[in-house]
Amino acid sequence: MADRIITVCSGGEASTPRRLRVFMNTLGSRGDVEPFVALGVALRAAGHAVTLCTAERFRSFVVDHGLEYGFMSDGILRLAGTDEGKGVLDGGKEGVLDYLAKLRKLSAQALPMQRQMVRESWAACERPDVIVYHPKAAGAPHFAQKLGVPAVLVLLQPMYVPTVDFPNPLAPSLPFRSGWYNKMTYGMFTALIPFGTSGFTRGWREEAGLAPEPTSSSVLTQPDGSELLVLHAHSPIVIATPADWPSWATALGYWPLRAQPGWRPSQPLADFLAAGEPPVYVGFGSMAGKDPAALTQLVVAALAAAGARGVVATGWGGLRRAGHVPDTVLMLDSAPHEWLFPRMAAVVHHGGAGTTAAGLRAGRPAVVCPFGMDQVFWAWRVHELGVGSEPIPQARLTVARLAAAITLVTRDAQLRERAAALGERLRAEDGAAAAVAKLEEHVERVRTARV
Question: Residue by residue, what is the 3-state secondary structure of the chain?
Answer without folding.
Answer: CCCCCEEEEECCEEEEEECCEEEEECCCCHHHHHHHHHHHHHHHHCCCEEEEEEEHHHHHHHHHCCCEEEEECCHHHHHHCCHHHHHHHCCCCCCHHHHHHHHHHHHHHHHHHHHHHHHHHHHHCCCCCEEEECCCCCCHHHHHHHHCCCEEEEECCCCCCCCCCCCCCCCCCCCCCCHHHHHHHHHHHHHHHHHHHHHHHHHHHHHCCCCCCCCCCCCCCCCCCCCCEEEECCCCCCCCCCCCCCCCEEECCCCCCCCCCCCCCCHHHHHHHHCCCCCEEECCCCCCCCCHHHHHHHHHHHHHHHCCCEEEECCCCCCCCCCCCCCCEEEECCCCHHHHHHHCCEEEECCCHHHHHHHHHHCCCEEECCCCCCHHHHHHHHHHCCCECCCCCHHHCCHHHHHHHHHHHHHCHHHHHHHHHHHHHHHCCCHHHHHHHHHHHHHHHHHHHHC
